[in-house]
Amino acid sequence: MKRDLVSIRDLNKNEFMEIIKDGIRLKEERKKGIRETLLRGKVLAMIFEKPSLRTRVTFQTGIYELGGIGIYLAPLDIQIGKRESIEDVARNLSRWVGGIMARTYLHSTVVSLAENASVPVINGLSDLEHPCQILADFQTIYEKKDYIEGIKLAFIGDGNNVCHSLMLASGLLGVNMRVAHPEGYGPKEEIIRSTEKLASSSGGSITLTFDPKEAVDGVDVIYTDVRASMGQKDEAEKRRKVFAPYQVNEELTNYAESDYIFMHCLPACRGEEVTTNVIDGSHSVIYDEAENRLHSQKALMLKLMK
Ligand code: CP
Ligand code: NVA
Q1: Strand order in the sheet with 43-48
Q2: Are residues 143 and 276 both part of a single domain?
Q3: Residue 203 C-alpha to ligand 1 middle, in angstroms?
Q4: What is the CA(186)–ligand 2 centre distance, in A?
Q5: Are residues 35 and 102 in the same domain?
Q6: How far is the CA of 201 from the centre of ligand 1 (A)?
C-alpha cells in the first residue's frame, strides 16, 4: 500500500529514526561523490500555493540527485481547487508521476490529495504542519548532540505549523518540549492531545507556558519561527506588539545550557523573533538545518517512492 507523509503522525519512531540515519548516510556519501540513483526515471510533482526557497530547491535537487526529476507547479499553474478540483488534480497526477509534494494553505488540501492520489503525497508545509522541516531538524539535533531521547527543547513564539510538527515529533521521540507563547497564540488542542498521547509511551513530555524564561531554563535547544506565517501577513503589525516579550535574545539564551543550539526553520525576520547576534552567533545551526532538508528529504523519498 502507498504511504504518505501528511503529518508527523504518519510515522512511527523507528521509521522516523531510519529517515534521520539514512539522511546522515546520504549526506556522507554525497560528500564523497557517491550517488544512489535509486529513483531513476521517477517524477515528483511539486505543487506550491505559497512561496518557498528551501522546500522547492531541496526537493527538486533531491529527486534529481536520486536519478529522477521534479516538476514545479506554481500557484497560478494549476490553481488547485479553483481551476480544477483537488480530487481531479490528485487523480490526474497519479497517472503520470511517482510522487506528489504539496505546500498548501489549508491542511485539508494535502489530506484530500493523499486520499485521492494512488501515489505517495508529501506535505511540504500546510497551515497545520511542516513535517519535512522537522525531519531535517531532528537530523541536525542528532548530529550536534549525538542523542535525541531526553533532549530538552524550548519553542518560543507562535503555536504554528512548525511548532505543531515539532511537538508531535518530540512526543514520538521522547523529547522534553516546552512551548512559550502569548495568550491566545498557543498550539491547537488537537495537537496538544496527540503529543501527550505520544509522549506517554515514549517518555517525552510537553509543557505550555506564557513565560519564555521558564521555557528556556536549562534547555539544550532553543527554537523559534516568524510571528506571522504565510497567509497571516496582514496581522504582522498586531503580532509585532503581542510577541515583543517573546524575542529570543542574549538575555533569554543565558537561561539555557551553555552548549545550547539555536534553531530556526527560516525565513527569519532578524531583529523581531530573534536578534541578529543570536541567529548569526556561534550557537546557531540554521544553515545545517537548511542543508539537512536536502538529505532527510532524499531519505524520505527513497522510503516512500522506491
Ligand atoms: N523552511 C522552509 O520551509 O523554507 P521555505 O519556505 O523557503 O521552503
Ligand atoms: N511558520 C512559517 C514557516 C515557514 C517555513 C510559515 O508558515 O510561514
Answers
A1: 69-73, 43-48, 99-103, 121-123
A2: yes
A3: 30
A4: 15
A5: yes
A6: 31
Please count the structural domains in the chain. 2
Residue 54 C-alpha cell reads as: 528551501
pLDDT at 36: 86
Expressed as residue numbers, the domain containing 198 is: 133-289
| pTM (two decimals) | 0.98
C-alpha cell at position 68: 529522477
Quick one: 137 and 284 in the same domain?
A: yes
Catalytic residue status for 163: no
Is residue 69 helix, strand or coil?
A: strand
> Is 265 assigned a catalytic role?
yes
Digit-coded pLDDT (tens) for 231-246:
999 999 999 999 999 9
DSSP string, 190-202: HHHHHHHHHHHHH
272 class by beta-carbon count within 10 Å (0-12 exposed, 13-18 middle, 19+ buried): middle
Averaged pLDDT score across all residues of the chain: 98
Q: Which atom of ligand 1 is nearest to the CA of 51?
A: 6
Residues 151 and 262 both lie in one domain: yes
Question: Do residues 171 and 233 share a domain?
Answer: yes
Q: Is residue 1 part of a domain?
A: no
Best probe residue, ligand 2, of 225, 289, 293 (max atoms within 8 Å of C-beta): 225
Instruction: Given the residues 9, 54, 56, 103, select the one marked as catalytic.
Output: 103
DSSP for residue 9: G
Residues 111 and 209 in one domain: no
Are 113 and 159 in the same domain?
no
Residue identifier of the C-alpha nearest atom 1 of ligand 2 = 229
Residue ID of nearest Cα to ligand 2 atom 7: 229
**Domain co-membership, 67 together with 112:** yes
* pLDDT tens-place string over residues 85-110: 999 999 999 999 999 999 999 999 99
